[in-house]
Specification:
Length: 201
């Protein structure tokens, strides 16, 4: 890694070493890896080398939309267990995805025993960012407008329909449990950009 051979404007990826700390100061879009003594790229962008200031920076290729506390996001449940669900939501056109964690205590003001009564992997969920503590994005679905807005049958994969407050599979003729949000079924997948999330599974 010889920064003098580095090309200004080159595309870099998150975590990529850009320079040693003795050589360049970390500028915007970079961070210092103390262990290795390197300046690394924080996100996808173009390398910017300021030889006069001895500073190296990364300019984002698209405006970064870092999640903010209070923001409502729409994402997909990518993994879960009894007490937690991980929800992935898009964070901008080219900047990728964020994953937030939903704790069972942030599902309802009342006691909820299992996350499997709340959502399932593949469900599309509307949630609110409540904290960014400890480097994690913490989500809440407390409130009538928050919760599952699209779900497929866990048996046959057909979209579940809302009937009399329950989610019903017209093919299997069974009811599934979810914490349904107001406006369930109106989601058409417009703002989920990834093909994995489009399948809804
Ligand atoms: Zn079914």
């Amino acid at each position: 890694m010889n920064v003098r051979k580095e090309k200004d404007g080159r595309l870099v990826i998150p975590g990529e070493p850009l320079s040693v700390i003795e050589e360049f100061m970390p500028g915007p879009g970079t961070y210092v890896d103390e262990k290795r003594g390197q300046v690394k790229a924080e996100y996808v962008g173009r390398l910017h080398i300021d030889l006069k200031e001895r500073r190296i920076a990364v300019k984002p290729v698209a405006p970064l939309r870092i999640p903010q506390v209070g923001r409502i996001v729409v994402g997909q449940v990518v993994s879960m267990d009894d007490k937690y669900a991980m929800i992935r939501f898009p964070s901008g056109k080219f900047t990728g995805f964020f994953t937030g964690v939903l704790n069972i205590s942030m599902v309802s003001r009342r006691f909820v025993k299992s996350m499997f009564d709340v959502c399932r992997v593949g469900d599309i969920v509307r949630a609110q960012i409540v904290s960014l503590a400890n480097g994690f994005c913490h989500l809440s679905i407390i409130g009538r407008h928050l919760g599952v807005i699209y779900a497929n049958c866990t048996q046959c994969g057909k979209p579940l329909e809302l009937k009399g407050g329950s989610l019903y599979c017209p093919r299997c003729m069974r009811v599934e449990r979810r914490k349904v949000a107001l406006g369930y079924g109106k989601f058409r997948g417009e703002f989920i950009e990834d093909s994995h999330t489009r399948k809804g599974r």
